[in-house]
Amino acid sequence: MKILMVCLGNICRSPLAEGIxxxxxxxxxxxxxxDSAGTGNYHIGEAPHTLSQKxxxxxxxxxxxxxxxxxxxxxxxxxxxxxxxxxxxxxxxxKISGSLFDASKTNLLLNEVTPNQNKSVPDPWYDTEKAYHxxxxxxxxxxxxxxNKYAPQSI
Length: 155
Ligand code: 4NP
Fold this sequence. Notes:
CATH topology: Rossmann fold
Bound molecules: 4-nitrophenyl phosphate
Number of domains: 1
CATH class: Alpha Beta
């Protein structure tokens, strides 16, 4: 499985999602490739937000080596599943992908927990550390659902 996590900046939410899912997949002995990207270009090349790094580290996950990149249309071909954090990300992924857009591969991450409700992982960019902990918990819960769905024998 190749899974791509997408948010706006690839600096707060999707780096956490990449780190959390890769961590859980490795623990479950699954040979999954997890990556992340942003629909915007504001932070290309930057490491994740300090608070995303801190909250991940408090949960035993090192995301400090990640570097932000922008989502490109060919990501639609290279990945089996593309999870976005909110509906704006979904529209931007659709726009960037153009004719390569594949709706069957693309979904809001929280739809793995609450199907068809299109709930968002809120953007913590202007918020405090508490919001990053809440985002971590939401993403972690969704990643458990993904592992359970695609590799039910592993947990
Ligand atoms: P993210 O958060 O999409 O979770 O990485 C954001 C990071 C940066 C900005 C917006 C959202 N920004 O406007 O620079």
